[in-house]
Amino acid sequence: xxxxxxxxxxxxxxxxxxxxxxxxxxxxxxxxxxxxxxxxxxxxxxxxxxxxxxxxxxxxxxxxxxxxxxxxxxxxxxxxxxxxxxxxxxxxxxxxxxxxxxxxxxxxxxxxxxxxxxxxxxxxxxxxxxxxxxxxxxxxxxxxxxxxxxxxxxxx
Length: 156
Hints:
This protein is of the alpha+beta class. It has a single domain (3-119, 126-154), classed as Nucleoside Triphosphate Pyrophosphohydrolase (Alpha-Beta Complex), CATH 3.90.79. 13% of the residues lie in helices and 31% in strands. It has helices spanning 3-6, 70-82, 148-151; strands at 21-22, 28-38, 44-49, 61-63, 89-97, 106-116, 129-134. The strands form two sheets. Strands 1, 2, 4, 5 and 6 form a five-stranded mixed β-sheet that branches. A two-stranded antiparallel sheet has the order 3-7. The radius of gyration is 15 Å and the shape is globular.
């Protein structure tokens, strides 16, 4: 089964994130960086924000800005969600069709970066953010934000 078949729910009309990159033929790309932060036991950090969709869990991620280098984007995700650049390395690239009204012309490309840190190394997490380390494949402590649950199976 291809990634596009497995990710049919990603990019639902409820998504607030823009498709920044659109060519003259109308092909829209949403380029993202996701950060897989593992602790010493291989569990992955999920985040919950008090201000943005409270009660929902996120895989730390951001949309790449036009002309932003993916490594710079990964550093921005790391600083935004963890308060510092954890210097993650590129681990995977996922691509699939978006589930939107213009599905034939809208695609996601997600650059998955990874880093392993000790839990005590994440003492500078920004205020209003809660982290939970979760085993790959297990459900988060509560509901997913947007369609992050659709991508979660690929964070193993």
